[in-house]
Amino acid sequence: MKKLPKIIIDKKPKYIKFGEDINFFELFQKIESRFDTCFILESLGEEEKFSRYSLIGFQPSKIISARKNILTINNRKYNVANPYFALKEIMPNQVLAKNYAGGLVGYLSYEAVNYFEPSIDVKVHELFDQFMFGVYDDGIILDKHSHELFYFYYRVNRIEALKRIGRLKINKTNSKLTQMIKPSLVLGVKKESADEKKLDEEIYELRNELYKKKKQIKQTKETKQDKYTKQDKTNHVISKPMTLKQYQQLSKKKKLNKKHLSLNSQGKIYSLINL
To answer: Is 229 exposed, middle or buried (0-12, 13-18, 19+ CB in 10 A)?
Structure first.
């Protein structure tokens, strides 16, 4: 039996600011037209804690798949007792990172249940492996709060290649996103009609419009919030937040009255002190 190779990933990734106010979907379209293997994990909905970030990964260092008792790593096959549990043996135990830092991204098929409950014995699909993962040791993170893009990596820094790709024009003929490949196309049943292609392009344009509108709404909210904290240079007034206890202490010293007070949109006390 061949010995399983260990996946080596440094404990701490490096993060570099890649840009800001970049159309994330257009960037992915450029990337996926130039790499055979890539992914986008896009967080939709309200931009809160669990939908703040969207991710792009491309050209993984390794591709790991399994079928029955055969674990395949970059086309090399290994006979193991349980391919899913073998992942624990080959992946590093600890990575020191607060944000997303790569690792395994892929899918588990329904037939993968055999690895957790062998007694079920589901028939394995002839076209799809029971699981397939890419080992991604670099990638792009979009912070939707600040509209900033960050590139992270462990050993190989490919940011210059990404910048070159980002400057290129979108090649819609080579892009799988604009073609929107369907299962029927993969099986060779029929070709995509002109109407379907037109619809796919309209969907792409709508996604771009949605991205721009969300960005405008975000900037409008930030502008409204900033007006409560900016300095009023014409009246020589400074606005600063304080607790109720701090206000009470200050009011004794300065003899403040109601005209010195202001409330921001969150209801926090702001003192307005004439200089």
So the answer is: exposed
Same domain? For 250 and 161 the reply is: no
Q: Is the pLDDT reported for residue 135 higher than 60?
A: yes
Q: What is the CATH number of the domain that holds 51?
A: 3.60.120.10
Among the three residues 180, 199, 217, which one is the final residue of a domain in this structure? 180
Q: Render pLDDT for 190-235 as a digit per residue (tens, 0 to 9).
A: 444 566 666 666 776 777 777 777 777 777 776 666 554 444 444 4
274 vs 58, 237, 262, CA distance in Å? 56, 5, 13
Domain C-terminal end among 180, 198, 216: 180
SS3 string, 182-228, reads CHHHHCCCCCCCHHHHHHHHHHHHHHHHHHHHHHHHHHHHHHHHHCC
Q: Give the number of other CB atoms < 10 A from CB of residue 243.
A: 10
What value does the mean pLDDT take over residues 54-63?
95
Instruction: Please state, as a whole number, how many other Cβ atoms lie within 10 Å of the Cβ of residue 189.
Output: 9
